[in-house]
Design goal:
By secondary structure, the protein is mainly α. The protein has 2 domains: about 5-95, Orthogonal Bundle (Arc Repressor Mutant, subunit A); about 95-235, Tetracycline Repressor, domain 2, CATH 1.10.357. Helix content is about 70%, strand content about 0%. The protein has helices at about 20-30, 45-60, 70-75, 80-85, 90-105, 110-115, 120-135, 135-150, 155-160, 165-180, 190-210, 220-235. The radius of gyration is 20 Å and the shape is elongated. It comes from Hoeflea algicola. Pfam families: TetR_C_7 (PF14246), TetR_N (PF00440). Keywords: DNA-binding. This is TetR/AcrR family transcriptional regulator.
Amino acid sequence: MTIAWYRSLPVDRCGTVRYRTGQDRNRVGCHMSEPTPSKRPSVEQRRATILAASAQIFFEQGYAATSIDSIIAKIGGSKRNIYSEFGSKEGLFTALVTEITDNALADMTVERLADPDLKNTLMEFGRRLIEVYISPTVVGVLRTVMAETSRFPELARAFYEKGPSRASARLAELLERSKARGEINVRDCLLSADNFTGMLRGNLHLQVVLGLREPPDPDEIETILTSVVETFLHGVRGR
């Protein structure tokens, strides 16, 4: 079970989830299959329920204003169970970011994206990464981190290490394979991967995070992606 459905809910410019229906508002706590009275939820179900409820509360109230008590009030249970599973509120937020990143990177494995044509590989990787960057869930996490980073710098560190850093490392693996085949000439594949992902984000992603514009539609994504891939390939092959 995952909380992937949450990224489909729209987020307004303040980072607040805009629920389409009353069902959406309640879905965080009940999207899991409800156990029968005689059957207790599994550890996996319980963890997914906690993370889903936490996502809603973190994004709506912010990190500082969110308490373990508010999460317990929504889903029931005890503080001991949450502290036993996650260690602290910081641990809970880190687990949430990890869950989101794991879902996002699940299909971005080296094996699945290792197309013999590097351009095809970069197009597919970039397309999936842009979709992740502009998803309401990731935008909500980033807004939370940006709002709290001065008071809770560990949140920014957790977000970077669990999110952008892992994406660059995954792409660096693909570039290393291409470099071994003599297709590209770069000194540092991880640095090149950072450059590629940075180009993908650009000012457009910042505008979305700041609420200055709506996320790009599929046609605009393809236009941006094609420009980034062509520019990147010109640099890594033009030596």
